[in-house]
Design brief:
about 425 residues, alpha/beta, Purple Acid Phosphatase, chain A, domain 2, 2 domains, seven-stranded mixed β-sheet, five-stranded mixed β-sheet, 10 helices, globular
Length: about 425
């Protein structure tokens, strides 16, 4: 659930120095003001997870504050851009037993999202139509298969920053090419587009296994968050099976941990997952997803995503990942928000072909700011824009990042600040600055 970011967080990898100050506030200072008349502020929000049905959507209580924040942003004379860095629309967090499209199509689905969250969409559309602030949408994994035309249906005139391949995008704000904003799911084994697996079963699909896991997680929530459920049949390592079998065993361990965290009432052989989206037809069970073996130490196999352990290198190439990570590393790190933070450093700041100095990710729901060094030992800034879901255990919610670019004055610095809007109070969580 929530793109696997709800798992236990690993130790913060070296290279990031957080300056979080969650107990400090701006004491009435407007985060959308630069003290002058210029429109140059860039605001980044992500992971709104707006759903088509408020009975199970992850963002419900926070809709009112979100609408209020958007209205404040619209009225701010210094804001130049609003960037929505993925997971605006939620096609994943739908209970497994629910027909996502209700027998209709994606266009109808996104219209239902706009209707269920009318105040928020009215506020967004008001900003877009006024034309003073550029509103940009970057895809995330929960809106991975939402087509450009579908977004245009409910947010006409929005700027969409998309890769050529569906489900991905990286954005540099106007006039600021050294800033990169993306959701960051392209680096995650469970959440990156998968245009290789399941092509016989669902021709053209790009849905990764995280989609099915999230459907199960949503069912866990609607069933009342059980404390215990069925266990997966034990799989043991196939010592003689080589690297491919070792990787599939690692993949099984990830699924074993997932179903322990989110137990459901249903048996694992029940065809409860109604996946009538993105080429999939019919229903699937947990047993269709988790690796299995006929005898201890024997061959490990899997039904859906058969061969996924062998195609990660090709997935990274197709998903335009600059610096590839090993399959073992990718599988073992799917539960680590801090590893995602490290990947910002690896893919941008330690990449000799990248000139980015400020990177903003979403996806993990773990808001923070860090100041790693790049390959040339220059200071950079990394920020994660957090989330707007109602419940973000152990962390704040209603987060946003504000970037105030430097001026021509040599003493001026680019400011990056992280806020939350909990209780409808602007609270500054962290900040950092540099001149580049």
């Amino acid at each position: 659930m929530r793109s696997l970011s709800v798992f236990l967080v690993m130790l913060f990898l070296s290279g990031f120095v957080s300056c979080n100050k969650s107990d400090s506030t701006d004491n009435g200072i407007d985060p959308f003001s630069n003290g002058g008349n210029e429109r140059n502020i860039i605001v980044v929000i992500s992971d709104l997870h707006l759903g088509a049905d408020l009975q199970y959507a992850e963002c419900k209580v926070n809709l009112g504050p979100l609408e209020k924040l958007l209205k404040q942003l619209k009225a701010a004379p210094n804001v130049k851009e609003l960037v929505i860095a993925g997971d605006l629309l939620d096609e994943w967090f739908v209970p497994a037993t629910v027909n996502t499209y209700q027998g209709k199509d994606q266009a109808d689905f996104v219209r239902r999202i706009a209707t269920a969250n009318k105040g928020v969409f009215d506020a967004m559309n008001s900003i877009i139509q006024e034309g003073k602030i550029l509103v940009t949408y970057v895809p995330g994994n929960h809106d991975l298969t939402i087509a450009e035309a579908s977004v245009d249906l409910i947010l006409p005139g929005i700027n969409q920053a998309r890769d050529q391949k569906l489900g991905l995008g990286t954005y540099s704000p106007v006039d600021y090419p050294k800033i990169a904003i993306e959701h960051s799911h392209r680096y995650n084994f469970f959440c990156a587009p998968d245009p290789i697996s399941n092509q016989v079963i669902a021709p053209g699909t790009i849905l990764p296994p995280g989609y099915f896991f999230t459907r199960i997680g949503a069912l866990y929530v609607t069933q009342g968050r059980l404390s215990v459920g069925e266990k997966l049949p034990v799989v043991t390592q196939n010592i003689s099976g080589g690297e491919s079998q070792d990787l599939l065993f690692r993949y099984w361990k990830t699924w074993e941990m997932a179903v322990k965290l989110f137990p459901i009432k249903n048996k694992f052989n029940e065809k409860i997952i109604l996946a009538n989206v993105d080429g999939f037809k019919g229903s699937y069970s947990v047993n269709d997803l988790a690796p299995y073996q006929s005898a201890p130490g024997g061959v490990i196999d899997v039904n859906l995503y058969n061969g996924i352990q062998d195609n990660w290198e090709a997935r990274q190439t197709r998903n335009n990942v600059p610096i590839h990570i090993t399959t073992a590393e990718a599988i073992d790190s799917v539960n680590s928000a801090t590893y995602t933070d490290y990947l910002a450093k690896l893919q941008y700041f330690l990449n000799p072909n990248s000139d980015k100095r400020i990177v903003v990710f979403g996806h993990t729901h773990d808001p923070k700011i860090g100041a790693p060094k790049n390959i040339d030992n220059n200071k950079c800034i990394y920020a994660n824009s957090g989330t707007w879901i109602d419940h973000n255990p152990g962390k704040t919610t209603m987060n946003f990042v504000v970037i105030t670019p430097q001026s021509v004055d040599v003493s001026s610095q680019t400011l990056v600040k992280l806020y939350n809007f909990e209780n409808e109070v602007m609270t500054k969580m962290a900040e950092n600055s540099m001149r580049y």
